[in-house]
Design goal:
The protein is α/β, with parallel strands linked by helices and 270 residues long. It has two domains: 179 residues, Rossmann fold, CATH 3.40.50; 78 residues, Trehalose-6-phosphate phosphatase related protein, domain 2 (Alpha-Beta Plaits, 2-Layer Sandwich). The protein contains nine helices and 13 strands. The chain has a nine-stranded mixed beta sheet with strand order 1-13-12-11-2-3-4-5-6, with helices on both faces. It has a four-stranded antiparallel beta sheet with strand order 7-8-10-9, covered by helices on one side. The longest helix has 17 residues. It binds magnesium ion. Magnesium ion binds next to loops.
């Protein structure tokens, strides 16, 4: 992986004069990872930058998150942005409203697993269960380290068999477990869907996708976009399908700022 700002000269050339479609993850990308999901509030600086970026010509932004659509819309609180919730199962923007209909079929099964987990995890202090409608997340960041194996085994017991039978999808992330419908749909497919849709409706030919994210679920998007787009991992460099990395959310802001400056230049200088 290359440090993005080391390659800024060549990236600048790539970005200049293109129409950009920028995909941004939320937690760990636009806001630092914090103790509880509610505490991940977007800073004024980041929000202002996004507002300017959203108004820039030759640019479209999508915030793409594992949170529910309702939650992510509220957290960002800006217009002119496309919101993608539940890792792509729900999408909303100007003239876009999409819910993966297949995912609705799994709601009652997911609800039942969640209820069972709530009961079985009640004895462990610090566990937070986040209901996201089409999926749910078990957060264990606040659990004492000695209790974490217990959380893991209770989760495994509740999900392993159903997951093997492909009745649900059970995933792990940064101090979280997630249960979602077993669909071949992820952040990468959602990003490709949005790109194709935009290409078709705008007749824009030179769209350059840029995807920035920090977690495992972003790898699906890095994989499908790293050939024709700019893929950026946020965090200490590690093995990833992303081509570049930025060290933290502050550097993501710096990148957004530089991109705003590039977009403000008059097109077709070369
Ligand atoms: Mg993230």
């Amino acid at each position: 992986m290359k440090y993005l700002f080391d390659k800024w000269e060549s990236l600048q050339r790539k970005i200049r004069n293109k129409y950009l479609f920028i995909f941004l993850d939320y937690d760990g990308t636009l806001t630092p990872i914090v103790e509880t999901p509610q505490k991940a509030v977007i800073s004024k600086e980041t929000k202002d930058l996004l507002r300017v970026l959203a108004r820039a010509p030759r640019c479209k932004i999508a915030v793409i998150s594992g949170r529910s659509l309702r939650d992510i819309k509220k957290k960002v609180g800006l217009k002119k942005i496309i919101f993608v919730g539940n890792h792509g199962l729900e999408i909303e923007g100007r003239k876009i409203k999409h819910v993966n209909m297949l995912s609705l079929r799994y709601r009652s099964l997911l609800r039942k697993i969640k209820r069972d987990l709530e009961k079985n995890l009640a004895c462990v202090k610090g566990v937070i269960l986040e209901d996201k409608g089409l999926s749910f997340t078990v957060h264990y960041r606040l659990v004492e380290s000695g209790d974490i194996p217990k959380v893991k085994s209770i989760f495994k017991e509740a999900t392993e068999l159903l997951s093997l039978k492909n009745k649900i999808k059970a995933k792990t992330g940064k101090m979280i477990f997630e249960v979602s419908p077993p669909l071949e749909w992820n952040k990468g497919k959602a990003a490709l869907w949005l790109l194709a849709r935009h290409k078709f409706s705008s007749k824009e030919k030179m769209i350059l996708p840029i995807y920035i994210g920090d977690d495992r679920t972003d790898e699906d998007a890095f994989k499908v976009l790293n050939r024709n787009g700019i893929t950026v991992f946020v965090g200490s460099p590690r093995s990833s399908h992303a081509e570049y990395y930025l060290k933290d959310t502050k550097e993501v802001n710096r990148f957004i700022k530089k991109t705003i400056d590039l977009l403000a230049e008059k097109p077709c200088q070369n």
